[in-house]
Amino acid sequence: MEGIEYNLTEVVIFLIKEESTIYPEEIGRKVKEARLNKSFTQQELADKCSLTKSHISKIENGQASPALATLSKIAKELNAPLSYFLESNNQSKMAIVRNTERTLKVGNEEIGYTYEALAKRPHFSKIEPVIVTVLPEAELVEPFTHAEDEFIFVLSGSINLYYDGELHLLEQGDSAYFEGTIPHIFLSTGKIEAKVLTMFIQVDSL
């Protein structure tokens, strides 16, 4: 499986319309806010992300839901954590999220994953914890990269972790830590979904 960087054009963000859902309009508002904070024009941001100005404009206006990989690349160029665009604002020094309150979900069967945010954190926090449900239907999802380091812990089921062209079987209780800049993907090993605690960790540039 060959890796690609921020080129999962078939990956679309699906947001379930519940109380804590983040809509495309809110993601777009945050993209624009972060872009202006960096004093980038839409064209400059588009060039940095290998996108068109029209695409950036549609994202900012809530007219297009960005692919998760595209949003991750935008976040990288704007020096903002991915969580800034996906979570509701919360500046409290501590945030408790009850099991019944985890209503923000991203993904569907087409991309092979669903994501549940575990923390409502301040902007630009360096750690983003999520629960990833790996759906057994996902077979053709390509490896990808992102700026953050990643820690995974298999809560249930088992997964095949493809990392830098090598295959690693991880079962319940197994964990891995790796650099996100290397092409990687993890997929279910069979017909039963797996749940994986995942932490994206922003690494400071030297």
In angstroms, what separates the terminal alpha carbons? 31 Å
Strand/helix succession: HHHHHEEEEEEEEE
Strand order of the largest sheet: 1-2-3-9-4-7
The low-confidence runs, each spanning 5 or more residues with pLDDT under 50, are 1-20
Q: How many β-strand runs?
A: 9
On the 0 to 100 scale, the average pLDDT is 79
Estimated structural class: alpha+beta
The biggest beta sheet, please?
6 strands, antiparallel
Gross morphology is: globular
Provide an overview of this structure.
The protein is of the alpha+beta class. Helix content is 22%, strand content 26%. The strands form 2 sheets. It has a 6-stranded antiparallel sheet with strand order 1-2-3-9-4-7, with no helix packed on it. A 3-stranded antiparallel sheet has the order 6-5-8, with no helix packed on it. Helix 2 crosses helix 3.
Short description:
With 206 residues, the protein is an alpha+beta fold. Helices cover 22% and strands 26% of the residues.
